[in-house]
């Protein structure tokens, strides 16, 4: 089974937190080379940014972000 990375974020607008589990390929497709990740809140539908090292420290470490 492929390794999954845990991507976490907390919406600054409503305070909702979200967790996603993405493969390395999915992370690379959406976030490769980015220091800040743009995420969507599932509750209030606002877009917000999260530092890659905060949102997914394991991916940041593996990819030397």
Summed up, what is this model?
The protein has 65 residues and is α+β, with helices and mostly antiparallel strands. Helix content is 28%, strand content 37%.
Number of domains: 1
- What does the main sheet amount to? 2 strands, antiparallel
Order of strands in the sheet with most strands: 1-2
**Poorly predicted regions:** none
Would you tell me the overall average pLDDT? 90
* Helix-strand topology string: EEHEEHH
The rounded distance between the terminal residues' Cα atoms is: 25 Å
Chain oligomer state: single chain
Count of helical regions: 3
Which term fits the overall shape? globular
Helix content: 25-40%
Computed over alpha carbons, the radius of gyration is: 12 Å
Number of strands: 4
Class per helix and strand makeup = alpha+beta
Strand content: 35-45%
Q: What would you note in describing this structure?
A:
This protein is an alpha+beta fold and 65 residues long. 28% of the residues lie in helices and 37% in strands. A two-stranded antiparallel sheet has the order 1-2. The longest helix is centred in the middle third of the chain and has 8 residues, at 24-31.
Index terms:
globular, 28% helix, two-stranded antiparallel ribbon, 37% strand, 65 residues, alpha+beta
List the helices and strands and how they pair.
Elements: E1 4-10, E2 17-23, H1 24-31, E3 36-40, E4 47-51, H2 52-55, H3 57-62
Antiparallel strand pairs: 1-2, 3-4
